[in-house]
Specification:
Strand content: 5-15%
Oligomer: single chain
CATH architecture of the largest domain: 3-Layer(aba) Sandwich
Number of helices: 14
Helix content: 40-55%
Distance between the termini: 44 Å
Number of strands: 16
CATH class of the largest domain: Alpha Beta
Length: 472
């Protein structure tokens, strides 16, 4: 099977064929840096990481651009509420976003353009749209795109032209699907914007949200590129508006493949602070949920299915990760017998690729990995796994992980766990020795039992107490 993706604008799977053979130009909508990104945002960012990793696994050279929206209605409002200059305010949340990316082992994009750095280019694109009669200037110095001038408007969201509210305008950055109205390319200065404005041919003002992505994507990837991604909530109006303004400004196709991830629910409900089911990455880490488990839980549901995130699934995720790591560690110790590599190993790789080629079918891909683990463990149990097979299996596990991105997290966590083990156990031993010296044997026994129940062995010697972790 050839690599194929569900293309939102075609509403069907399309075989993937890049504009330039062997190269992929990828644009993904990044965060609006007015607050911490939540796990719903990271569901989308994780899907995009999987997409990029798999494209690179397939041998493509990927150029990845992710924007940072640092000027819009929300960033201005929140910076003013905080009493902090806009650029200083958003920098804090940019840094927090990058820390979250690194915590989850999400590969950094090659470019992170900030909207405020591209305002002159945005003014030029708006001017082009006005000159081409696709946009008009309102009395307050705002500029609106005239959707009636673009017959293909609504094609991405599958909306009918007769549903357009022709002549009606919407200035807000985000609005409901029912509001197929002319949208703001440039917003004339208002009192609530404070000192956030730029000079333009239409007076002082600032760009609308939608024009930002059109400019940053085409500036860094060209007028026509391969893949544009985002959450399903971005499909309309944001991506629909991007298409309209970009195609009309450049006269070119803009994007060949549109990929959108579905919503994340928490315990089958929409995330809401009032329902106490709203989580950021630091929230989960503070609950002692390892980053490897967070990544696994965000990764292992197909991107076009709603993901139900539940803290009740943490143990299930841990078992899956333990199964993979246990197999990897067992392979290291296993000696192997003479013979050629077992055929099921090649079959596992073929099955993995066949599944992932089918619109990133992660369930099928994981199924291929766990089937390989089952067969490998069975042969090792019988001491019938070849040395050549062992080496190939180890190589395949690493290849699979280049897509999953789990091992680095697990190994870092194991190192941290060892440090924490050492700190905790040694403190307990000091406390127990004090109790023994004071002849408080009830306390001494209670501490010893606590240590044993935590999975450790104690060996008392005349001048010291040695500890080690139980292996069984």
């Amino acid at each position: 099977m050839a690599l194929q993706f569900y293309n939102s604008i075609k509403r069907k799977r399309n075989i993937f064929s890049p504009i330039i053979d062997g190269e992929v130009k990828l644009y993904t909508c990044g965060p609006t840096v007015y607050n911490y990104a939540h796990i719903g945002n990271f569901r989308t960012f994780m899907f995009e990481d999987l997409l990029r990793r798999y494209l690179e696994f397939k041998g493509f050279t990927v150029t990845h651009v992710m924007n940072l929206t640092d000027v819009d209605d929300k960033t201005i409002r929140n910076s003013q509420q905080a009493g902090t200059p806009l650029l200083k305010f958003v920098q804090f949340f940019k840094d927090a976003f990058f820390a979250d990316l690194d915590a989850l082992n999400i590969r950094r994009a090659h470019h992170y353009p900030a909207a405020t750095a591209y305002v002159p280019q945005m003014i030029e694109m708006v001017k082009t749209l006005v000159d081409k009669n696709y946009a008009y200037v309102s009395d307050d110095g705002s500029v609106f795109f005239d959707i009636a001038k673009f017959p293909e408007y609504g094609r991405l969201a599958n909306l009918k032209p007769e549903d357009m509210l022709v002549g009606n305008r919407v200035a807000d950055d985000e609005y409901d699907k029912e509001e197929m109205r002319d949208f703001a390319l440039w917003k004339g200065r208002k009192a609530e914007d404070g000192e956030i404005f730029w000079d333009s041919p239409w007076g002082k003002g600032r760009p609308g949200w939608h024009i930002e992505c059109s400019v940053m994507s085409t500036e860094l990837l060209g007028d026509h590129f391969d893949i544009h991604c985002g959450g399903i909530d971005n499909l309309f109006p944001h991506h629909e508006n991007e298409i309209a303004q970009s195609v009309c400004a450049t006269g070119k196709e803009f994007v060949n493949y549109w990929l959108h991830s579905e919503y994340l629910l928490v315990d089958r409900k929409k995330m809401s602070k009032s329902d106490h089911n709203y989580f950021t990455i630091p929230d989960l880490l503070e609950r002692n949920i390892p980053a490897s488990i967070i990544r696994w839980m965000l990764l292992t549901t197909h991107y076009r299915q709603k993901l139900n995130f539940s803290l009740d699934r943490v143990e299930e995720a841990q078992k899956s990760l333990d199964r993979i790591m246990s197999f990897k560690n067992r392979l290291k110790e296993y000696q192997g017998i003479e013979g050629n590599a077992e055929p099921f190993l090649d079959d596992s790789m073929k099955s993995f690729e066949l599944s992932m080629d089918d619109d990133l079918n992660i369930s099928g891909g994981l199924g291929a990995i766990f089937e390989m683990i089952r067969n490998g463990n069975r042969l090792m149990d019988m001491n019938e796994f070849s040395q050549e097979g062992k080496l190939l299996a180890m190589s395949l596990i690493e290849r699979f992980d280049s897509v999953l991105g789990i091992f680095d997290l697990l190994e870092n966590e194991a190192t941290l766990s060892l440090v924490n083990d050492t700190s905790w156990i040694e403190a307990k031993i000091i406390e127990r020795n004090k109790a023994r010296k004071a002849k408080d044997y009830d306390m001494s026994d209670a501490l010893r039992n606590e240590i044993i129940e935590a999975g450790y062995e104690l060996i008392d010697k005349p001048d010291e107490t040695i500890w080690k972790k139980r292996t069984i």
